[in-house]
Amino acid sequence: MDGKETAKRKQVLEGNAFYEIDLECMRKKERREEMEKREREARKPKRFR
């Protein structure tokens, strides 16, 4: 995978496909997924943690 990164976007060339990724959007998604994971863990009974 070849990438060219700017401050807010990353351009990725993979095979014949070209992607432009919004890095801020990706960071928000990662934070949201991490928060959801923590919430799921908090709801588990302690013996299953």
From TrEMBL:
Highest taxon of the lineage: Bacteria
Record's compositionally biased regions (Basic and acidic residues): 30-42
Chain positions covered by the region annotation Disordered: 30-49
Annotated protein name in UniProt: Uncharacterized protein
Lineage: Bacteria, Bacillati, Bacillota, Clostridia, Lachnospirales
